[in-house]
Design a protein that fits this description.
Shape: globular
CATH superfamily of one domain: Glutaredoxin
Radius of gyration: 23 Å
InterPro entries: AGR/TXD, Thioredoxin-like_sf
Keywords: Signal
Helix content: 40-55%
GO biological process, one term: fin regeneration
Structural class: alpha+beta
Protein name: Anterior gradient 1
Strand content: 5-15%
CATH topology of one domain: Glutaredoxin
Family: Belongs to the AGR family.
Order of helices and strands: HHEHHEEEH
CATH architecture of one domain: 3-Layer(aba) Sandwich
């Protein structure tokens, strides 16, 4: 009887040994903000890519557990024109931690906030959201305003270079 138990265990172990191990999928840089968009890994990588491509950098500061960030993310992903511009016309970065560049928090450290940087390395503090208490925040109902600001970031950038 013991022989049969040992035999069955050996068969089970050897059968499982031949199965390929599934690789753990690396977390997406999109963090839910649009899987069809090419996202850069860090602020420094974004600045480098921006200089090479001559496209403005769009930085989305957010937190996974913030209800305002979650609501903005849902609206951002649902807006096809924003997704198209983000994919085609911008270097895209979403950050869940602050950068060492203090220019990325011109009116404070809060989330969500969206800032634009042009290829001359200028943070576009003139391109703001609708809310005077937090200039660079957007709410789900502000997607039309965000789309206009994205167009403004592209046009201003090309006119000024």
């Amino acid at each position: 009887m013991l022989c049969w138990v040992v035999f069955a265990l050996l068969i089970g172990v050897s059968a499982g040994a031949g199965e390929p191990k599934k690789k753990a999928k690396a977390p997406s840089l999109a963090n839910g903000w649009g899987n069809n968009i090419k996202w850069v890994k860090s602020y420094e990588a974004g600045l480098e890519e921006m200089k090479k491509s001559q496209k403005p950098l769009m930085v989305v500061h957010h937190l996974d557990n913030c209800p305002y960030s979650k609501a903005l993310k849902k609206a951002f992903v649902a807006d096809k024109s924003i997704q198209k511009m983000a994919k085609e016309d911008f270097v895209m970065l979403n950050l869940m931690e602050e950068t060492s560049d203090q220019n990325m928090a011109p009116d404070g450290y809060y989330v969500p906030r969206i800032l634009f940087v042009d290829p001359s390395m200028t943070v576009r503090t003139d391109i703001v959201g609708k809310h005077s208490s937090r200039l660079f925040t957007y709410q789900p109902e502000d997607m039309e305003h965000l789309a206009e600001n994205m167009k403004k970031a592209k046009v201003l950038m090309h006119d000024e270079l």
